[in-house]
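Researcher: Next sequence.
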Amino acid sequence: MKQMWKEFRAFAMGGNMLDLALGFIIGAAFAALVESLASNILMQLVAAIFGKPDFSELTFEFNNAEIKYGAFLTDFVGFLLMALVLFSIVKLLKKAGLGNFRAQGQRECPYCKEFVSVDALKCKWCTADIDPDQLEEEDLEILEARRRTGEK
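Model: Next structure:
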């Protein structure tokens, strides 16, 4: 029993577990902040434009069933506003050089059929020049130089 307690304590206090816990807590706080911005500021601007804080009361009846399309519209507009807020925050953080926003995922090299990163400019297997699926701003100069040398 004592050995199991030591193992559990080492696991719980290990770097990965604490990193995960801190990331979860910060993520929850960040989600609350984004939700507040979207609902308390941006949705209120929508309310000012349309004269209603939400569209929940918009309904129609179909075969004695009340279809609440207004509630869906409210949730949809809220989702779009939250997505806009998150997109803007990520763009600002990326522009400020904070965080790691590298593209995630892989794709197949068109020449050797091995998998490379979606933002790869050169295949790590066959060293062929490839066009990235997701373009990064810092890669623009490399692609432009590649096009100039290809034209000559």
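Model: The chain has a mean pLDDT of 83. The CA atoms of residues 72 and 115 lie 41 Å apart.
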